[in-house]
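Re: the 372-residue chain
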Amino acid sequence: MKKDFYEILGVSRSADAAAIKKAYRKKAIEFHPDKNPGDKSAEDKFKEAAEAYEILGDADKKAKYDQYGHQAFDGSGGFGGGGHGGMNMDDIFSQFGDIFGGGFGGFGGSRSGGGVRRAKGSNLRIKVKLTLEEIANGVEKKVKVKRKVQAPGVSYKTCSTCNGQGQVMRVTNTILGRMQSASTCPTCGGSGQILDKKPSNADSQGMILEDETVSIKIPAGVVDGMQLKVSNKGNDAPGNSIPGDLIVAIEELEHELLKREGENLHYDLYVSFPEAVLGVSKDIEAINGKVRIKLEEGIQSGKILRLKGKGIPSINGYGSGDLLVHVNVWTPKTLNKEQKQFFEKNMTEENFIPNPEKSDKSFFEKVKDMFS
């Protein structure tokens, strides 16, 4: 069971962005590898804090986490999608290095062994369309993406501006004395390398476009508009870089018969007047095939039948929603002479006169129950 991100950073759920950032900086400095060389436990806590900040430090991701928990990012979120154990230290320094202000060891960004900041490629974004059945059961999708990758035969050399450090140092005079600060090298963009040789088919940065088929594991219960992340499947960057990420936006396709409302599904069942009077068994469409239900004699139009657990699974893993069957009694629009005479004859009969019981809820009460 993964730890709660708020617990990892030591903040409450009501903490604002500034408090979350401050808490992460404190944890990261405490467990930073430069302060704890060879300490695997400290490294794990450092990665754990970075994973928590990646989610809570982003307003959109924080909102999804508050609503769906860890399941909102399973198979896609965090660094590498598999928890902090699969995280890349280069990812952490590349994405959050600015928090430390370049003033502590190699805190300037994503680093290679000697503290050089490694550039990260740009992210790619795609949209994946899912049927309601795929959303209910989870699915693995294979998509073809066109990525920028370093061309075969391309070579790079050490940047002369920063001497391969990826950073340039500046000294400024302040009222507190001379202060030294580091900033990303403007020549190499922080990679410490610049283009040396490139093949004719490469662009000015030594990159080419290449098609790649990427497998995306989508958990059950995702919602329209949710974004998943596949780490390191975005564009490469020149030199000693790490790839960007592939951002996958979910688009839910409309079902012909079922309407989704959160984890619940709604189905409109139309029955004839004789079926409503006499009762009948009906096969209705559910998310994983047909389900047979029995309608009692004298069922009223507007009755809602709740089929427990026949809805969409919770993305948090807390069971499934329900299938709500809305009964609609179909009133015939045309009648032949004999049929019309039958109803005219029974119009004043006691059994045909509306006489709702106290247990027969009004429309508004049914709506209230449906959303409670």
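DSSP finds nine helices and 15 strands in the chain.
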